[in-house]
Amino acid sequence: MIVMDSIDDFIDGFEGDQKKVLQFLHHWFTRELGLSDKIRFKTPFYFRHSWICSLKSTKHKTIELAFLRGNELSNIQGLLFSGNRKQVSGIEFRSVGDIPLEVLDNIIQEALLLDETVPYKSKRSKSS
User: Fold this and answer.
1) Would 95 disulfide with which of 17, 29, 34, 108, CB 3.0-4.6 Å?
2) Architecture of domain 18-117
3) Does position 48 have pLDDT exceeding 50, yes or no?
4) Cα(119)–Cα(65) distance, rounded to whole angstroms?
């Protein structure tokens, strides 16, 4: 059994455009935005106060950037989709050229503002 220790190990498991998208977004999140990263559930997650987003491969050979509090974002850009998920919303990219940087930056800034101003409250019920 292979244990992934880092996001670099995760990214190294991909090739071509998927690898390039993962590298680009990972660099942007950690170096440009100063987010912390951690592998959880065999997936790269990025956080500041709470989890902001994650990256995963889809069955369509795209990379999905999923916002963990996507249901709380405005989505005025119309790019986020939730499918059957109640809380998480995401955007899929086939290549780095598909990433609308300015629009995506607006979404990320909104997610960071939400993280800074509205503490995350788990929807899970706690039994006493």
Assistant:
1) 17
2) Alpha-Beta Complex (3.90)
3) yes
4) 21
Distance CA 75, CA 36 (A): 24
Cα separation, 118 vs 104, in Å, equals: 21
3-state secondary structure the chain: CCCCCCHHHHHHCCCHHHHHHHHHHHHHHHHHCCCEEEEECCEEEEECCCEEEEEEECCCCCEEEEECCHHHCCCCCCCCECCCCCCCEEEEECCHHHCCHHHHHHHHHHHHHHHHHCCCCCCCCCCC
- In this structure, what token pair is assigned to residue 86? 């109640």
So where are the chain's domains?
A: 18-117
What is the distance, to the nearest Å, from the Cα of residue 78 to the centroid of all Cα atoms in its chain? 17
Phi, psi of 82 (to 5 degrees): -115, -20
**Single-letter code of the amino acid located at 10:** F
Tell me the per-residue pLDDT of 52-78, one tens digit each, with 9 for 90 and over.
999 999 998 999 999 999 999 999 999
